Amino acid sequence: MKILLIAPCPENNQRHDTMAIPQLTLSLIAGMTPEEHEVTITEEVHNEIIDFDQEVDIVGITIMTQTAIRGYEIANEFKKRDKIVVFGGIHATVLPNEAIMFGDAVVIGEAENGLWERLLDDVKAHCLQKFYKLDNYPQLTNYVTPRRDLIRTSAGKFGIAPIETSRGCPYKCDFCTVPTSFGSKQRHKSIDFIIKDIESIKEKAIFFLDDNITISKKFAKELFTRMIPLNKAWVGQASINIVNDKELMRLARKSGCKGLLIGFESMTETGICKYKKTFSTFDENVNAVKALQDHGIMTMASFVFGLDDDSPEVFENTYNFIRKAKPAFLQACALTPYPGTQVYTRMKEENRILTDDWRQFDAKKVIIKPNSMTTEELQAGYTQIKDQTYSYMSILSRAFPHMFSGITESILYFSLNSGARKWHNSGLTSSLFKNADDMPVDFDVTKYVKPVKQAVLA
Fold first, then answer.
1. Are 92 and 103 in contact (CB under 8 A)?
2. Other C-beta atoms within 10 Å of 330: how many?
3. DSSP strands (E only) in 243-326
4. 157 and 290: one domain?
5. For position 47, which CATH number holds?
6. How far apart are the C-alpha atoms of 234 and 205, rounded to whole Å?
């Protein structure tokens, strides 16, 4: 059979020359597919065009909340041509009854342990089921060779390949979909398999997609030690408590670590206490960022604005932190009530979600009524902190700790910040979005895209 796998993307969010971290999901699905089938992948984020009239037996579409409506539009076009459409991804996992309206089957959760192969066998046998789901999270003990030859392994102008070592996260943040989709216990792949995977990557740089690559310090130390002779540069995500282990920082740097995305989430006393992902005081967190800098590791600091305990002072606190700690990059997220999270359930019950247009759920737009400030105050503060951080003065003032780490680090620093500045100034971020007065927030997606009549499988 001919299988087309698609990663949809709204047109206004496609990246032509700016940073977009490569996805791994579809290349893993392609790697699980038996060799008897022919697989191609189309990624709209890179402005790749879909040929709706091509000869194909199965169309697999992976959707996040932001890309769901575009995914349903794509499915409609293929359903008009009587093609079999299968959905997967985080959004389809948490809202399978919505996704099935536009397709023939939904893979709920992960597709390992023979689940994808069973679906393909069912298609051949003309007995496709509506829903496919494993009874338990797979333990990732079987090695799957990702088909990276079918995806774009670049971020902007940089060649960088995606890779994962684990799934799941023990930090049960109420705004995050990971515990729902992948579990709250981290599951590791075999280090032998990971090293084999890295050795197969032709790119000199890799991006670890793990939500936290250093939760298990023993695992991380062994992995980093074995990575040293591979001579790869890498970035990934970790928690700030990595600084408590100097050997771990040293091994990370020696193995090629250039930067880490650190989720600080909130620089308020209540936020620090609630999420327990950082140190307990402002100054301790500042010093932690500087400790990473001393080891030649850049910090990409991530914050979420609009949490229930956030007052307008959160913006001043955060910018003071940026000025003092001088992280390499700011990832500023507007609190977004993604389906499947505690925040979504709570805010939906309290009628605090301003829109049910999934296209706006991108963590860049204000789409909620916050608890401790007005919507207008959230919007103004969120825009201001990005104006401040992405200004030329801020970029230059934060550059000095990173410029002395090396040429690669300097290029990465200025590329990240110039890309963020360009994207912010495009006007596509930092906006307030809510439904029109005559458009109810009832989470009925069919008012945005109507499903076509389902084809009957022969």
1. no
2. 24
3. 257-265, 298-305
4. yes
5. 3.40.50.280
6. 5
Q: State the pTM of this model.
A: 0.92
* Exposure string for 42-78, b = 16+ CB within 10 A, e = fewer: bbbbbeeeeeeeeebebbbbbbbbbbbbbbbebbbeb
What's the pLDDT tens digit per position in 90-101?
999 999 999 999
Mean of the pLDDT values across residues 427-455? 86
Domain containing 228: what range?
Answer: 153-335+370-425
pLDDT computed for residue 290 by the predictor: 94
Measure CA 443 to chain center: 23
CB 33 within 8 A of CB 3: yes
Q: What's the CA gap between 356 and 339, in Å, rounded?
A: 10
The span from the CA of 397 to the CA of 385, in Å, is 15
Q: CA 107, CA 172: separation in Å to the nearest integer?
A: 24
Return the residue matching tokens 């207008």: 376
Distance CA(12)–CA(45), nearest Å, equals: 9
Structure tokens at 23: 């996805």
Predicted local distance difference test score (pLDDT) of residue 358: 97
Tokens coding 243? 């600084």
Q: Considering its fold, how many domains does the chain have in total?
A: 2
Would you say residue 155 has pLDDT above 80?
Answer: no
CB 160 within 8 A of CB 153: yes
Q: Can you say whether the dihedral through the CA atoms of 155, 157, 158, 159 is positive or negative?
A: positive
| Euclidean distance between CA atoms 217 and 219, whole angstroms | 5
Per-residue pLDDT at 276: 64
User: Are 186 and 288 within one domain?
Assistant: yes
* Alpha-carbon separation of residue 27 from 22, 99, 145 (angstroms): 10, 22, 8
User: CATH no. for residue 168?
Assistant: 3.80.30.20
